[in-house]
Amino acid sequence: MIGAANQTNWLRFAKTIDRPDLAADPRFRNNVERMRHFDELIAAVTPEIRKRSTQEWVATLDAAGVPVSPVLHVGDMHKDPQAIARGMIAEVTHSVLCPVKTLGNPLKFSKTPVELGAGRLCWVSIPARCCSPMATMPPKLTLSSPWERFNAPRPATRNRTSR
Fold first, then answer.
1. What's the Cα-to-Cα distance from 27 to each of 19, 79, 106, 158, rounded to whole Å?
2. Terminal-residue alpha carbon distance, the chain
3. CA-to-CA dists, residue 69 to 54, 59, 66, 154, 159, angstroms
4. CB 99, CB 73: distance < 8 Å
5. Helix (H) or strand (E) holding 10
6. Which uninterrupted H or E stretch holds 91?
7. Is 80 exposed, middle or buried (0-12, 13-18, 19+ CB in 10 A)?
8. What is the pTM of this model?
């Protein structure tokens, strides 16, 4: 993830990737124009970005003062030192399965610590030994995806209008 939305970071980014011509291009002169010509911008930047690894770009752009962070796969995120240090990897005891890893709460309060409850699942982190009970569970007890619960139809509400 490269944070080059404001003008200062955009100019640093263009210089750092050895494409100062992009900063002078009228299609990319400011953020409004960059968004208007987004597909063209991506087409111009992508060949440069592909010349180095993610780790190389993170180090190079960070040294140049451009906000940057790798986008991690979930498995990699669970091993990331920063994610671990921030308490973003948590283990909870699931009510049906067993201890599973899940995402920690990004909000950190000094006087009111956040505690995760049981039952929050990170689907890719369920150990294989925990999945076998799912196959034999009665249909009413099987877990639906969180998206199914989130997108479930809501009860109709009355349309309230002021009189």
1. 14, 40, 37, 48
2. 50
3. 9, 9, 10, 38, 45
4. no
5. helix 7-16
6. strand 89-93
7. middle
8. 0.58
How would DSSP label each residue in 36-77? HTHHHHHHHHHHHHTTS-HHHHHHHHHHTT--B-----HHHH
**Phi/psi of residue 140, nearest 5 degrees:** -65, -20
Radius of gyration of the chain (CA): 23
**Mean pLDDT of the region 39-60:** 95
pLDDT tens column, 113-147: 777 665 444 444 444 445 544 444 444 444 444 44
Those residues with Cβ within 8 angstroms of residue 145's Cβ, 6 or more apart along the chain or in another chain = 123
Total length of the chain: 163
Q: Cβ(66)–Cβ(12) under 8 Å?
A: yes
Encoding tokens for residue 31?
């953020």
Residue 78 carries which DSSP code? Answer: T
Token output for 112 = 């009111």
Beta carbons within 10 angstroms of residue 77's beta carbon: 18
What SS3 class is residue 128? helix
